[in-house]
Write a structure and sequence with these properties.
With 535 residues, the protein is an all-alpha fold. The protein is built from 24 helices and 4 strands. The strands form 2 sheets. Strands 1-4 form a two-stranded antiparallel sheet. It has a two-stranded antiparallel ribbon with strand order 2-3. A hairpin with a 2-residue loop joins β2 and β3 (112-115). The longest helix is centred in the C-terminal third of the chain and has 32 residues, at 365-396. It is globular, with a radius of gyration of 23 Å. Residues 172-455 form the NADH:quinone oxidoreductase/Mrp antiporter transmembrane domain. One of its GO terms (cellular component) is mitochondrial membrane.
């Protein structure tokens, strides 16, 4: 009883501290301009990261419960700050949003001329917010799963978080590239140490090799840009890239495109993701599907669409469309043939992200806004699906479809949550995915009606395999695995608990809110998407 009272008091104290922090943010925000706060977004998060890292560093590694609590409350603090800054961004005028909110700081070292400042727009700020939200889910789902080196694991999560936040806020090509590749390091470490199976080191090796292939092309393009312009500053390149010949622009486009296509990923550069998802811990899969795949989409938007002229984009659109359609149809059909549940969700992610790419290169406002909207929605939905798969894996240590059926009887609450996520995955009306896919479909129809037709076929395939998966998991097909029968008999097969529910509830709320009130997001990203189309 005494221990119970102490836990209550700790939680009350934590809530009070969070309330004080929120109050400071509100009072401080009133005394500072929105433009000042948004322009210093990266500085605010970097300082916050140093404080959190210092706190975790001071805790002895054997005090695992304390480490988890500090990590949880710290991740919540990141969400609160990100939400506050996102709200501040909405207070900016349209003129300020068009100009992007930036804070430039150059490095001049001999021939080196790099802008290490930040440049925040609506697209960047919304991805920063999505990152902080999913990290909370990662901390919660890892609470009982990670049993070794908990301190190192939590520190890696926050390193990944701060790298992603910085990625979505920088504008210089070299600065972006360094962060873009650096994120690979903590992800590889996480899979190598906390991966769930014996082939985790092979998965880490595959990630390294595929990323290296993309990096060679991307770095070559950046190197040539620096050679021609003497800088990698985004705005200078945007103003001068038209002075290059058509062949130079096309080669640069291809170099950047391949670097980002690996992260989406697009067929045939997708094989690393399948193994990575299968071997990664649950939090690793959430990060891969929820955020890391968005790095490729963000790169396409910011650099391929943002830098190059309409003529170059028109030239490559038919080729990109063919690759996307092949990727969508291939992964959709391949999904139906899988027995590993993680592979099913992984293939589904690839299919959805290639729909996003179609929208990105449609070159109209509906396609661009739809692609950003769907990426945010996909972060919620796909990340939550991996959370759900992790919940049952921890009980049975199996991800094979034949290990489960009739789960609705023993896990009714879990079945309801999974059903809601299934509806979101098929873009059911009043879900956020529906808004994103509808906008993309309209945008792609304007660009190429044949591409829209095949993209629509991919959506139909998604409906088929999503309900097929749900039926196999939650209804009786007479094939229940002996291990699950044993757990049911002993009463050990439990429904979703409070901590697991907390990890998935925020993304679920996001899916619902954006589904019924899409302007909440569209108003934030609209001017930024318009800027990308301005040539």
């Amino acid at each position: 009883m005494e221990k119970y009272k102490q836990d209550i008091m700790k939680n009350i104290n934590n809530i009070i501290y969070m309330g004080i922090i929120i109050g400071i943010l509100i009072i401080g925000g009133q005394s500072l301009s929105s433009e000042f706060l948004v322009s210093n977004t990266l500085n605010i998060f970097n300082v916050l990261f140093i404080i959190v890292l210092s706190c975790l560093g001071l805790i002895h590694k054997n005090k695992e419960e304390t480490i988890k609590r500090v990590s949880y409350w710290s991740s919540l603090l990141f969400v609160i700050v990100a939400t506050f800054l996102t709200i501040e961004y909405t207070y900016l005028t349209d003129f300020e949003k068009i100009g992007m909110v930036f804070n430039s700081d150059y490095i001049y070292t001999g021939m080196l001329n790099i802008n290490i400042g930040s440049s925040i727009d609506g697209i960047g700020i919304i991805f920063i917010w999505l990152t902080t939200l999913l990290i909370v889910s990662c901390v919660l789902i890892s609470w009982t799963v990670v049993k070794e080196e908990v301190k190192m694991y939590m520190i890696l999560l926050f390193i990944i978080e701060i790298l992603l936040i910085n990625l979505f806020g920088v504008i210089d090509l070299i600065h972006f590239y360094i962060i873009y590749e650096s994120i690979l390091i903590p992800i590889v470490i996480m899979i190598s140490i906390w991966g769930s199976r014996e082939e985790k080191k092979i998965a880490a090796y595959q990630i390294f090799v595929y990323t290296l292939i993309g990096s060679i092309f991307m770095l070559s393009a950046i190197g040539y840009i620096y050679y021609m312009f003497g800088t990698t500053d985004y705005f200078i390149i945007k103003e001068g890239i038209w002075t290059l010949s058509d062949i130079e622009q096309k080669l640069l486009f291809i170099g950047l495109f391949i670097g980002f296509a690996v992260k989406i990923p697009m067929v045939p550069l997708h094989l690393w993701l399948l193994r990575a998802h299968v071997e990664a811990p649950t939090a690793g899969s959430v990060l891969l599907a929820g955020i890391l795949l968005k790095m490729g989409g963000y790169g396409f938007l910011r650099f391929n669409v943002g830098l190059f002229s309409s003529n170059i984009l028109d030239f490559f659109f038919p080729y990109i469309t063919v690759i996307c359609i092949i990727s969508i149809l291939y992964t959709g059909i391949a999904t139906i043939l899988q027995l590993d549940i993680k592979k099913i969700i992984a293939y589904s992610s690839i299919s959805h992200m290639n729909v996003v790419v179609l929208g990105i290169f449609s070159q109209n406002i509906q396609g661009i806004e739809g692609s950003v909207f769907l990426m945010v929605s996909h972060g919620f939905v796909s990340g939550s699906l991996f959370l759900c798969i992790g919940m049952i894996y921890e009980q049975t240590k199996s991800r094979m479809l034949y290990s489960y059926n009739n789960l609705a009887v023993v896990m009714p609450n879990y079945a309801i949550i999974f059903f809601l996520l299934t509806l979101a995955n098929i873009a059911f009306p009043i879900t956020s995915s529906f808004i994103g896919e509808l906008l993309i479909f309209v945008g792609v129809m304007k660009a190429n009606i044949i591409a829209a037709f095949f993209g629509g076929m991919g959506m139909i395939i998604t409906v088929f395999y999503s309900f097929w998966l749900y039926n196999r998991l939650f209804f009786d097909n007479g094939m229940l695995d002996e291990q699950v029968k044993f757990l049911n008999k002993k009463g050990k097969f439990r429904d979703i608990n409070e901590r697991e529910f907390a990890s998935v509830v925020l993304p679920l709320i996001g899916v619902g809110v954006l589904g019924v009130a899409p302007n909440v997001l569209l108003n934030i990203i609209h001017m930024s998407c318009m800027l990308l189309l301005k040539k």
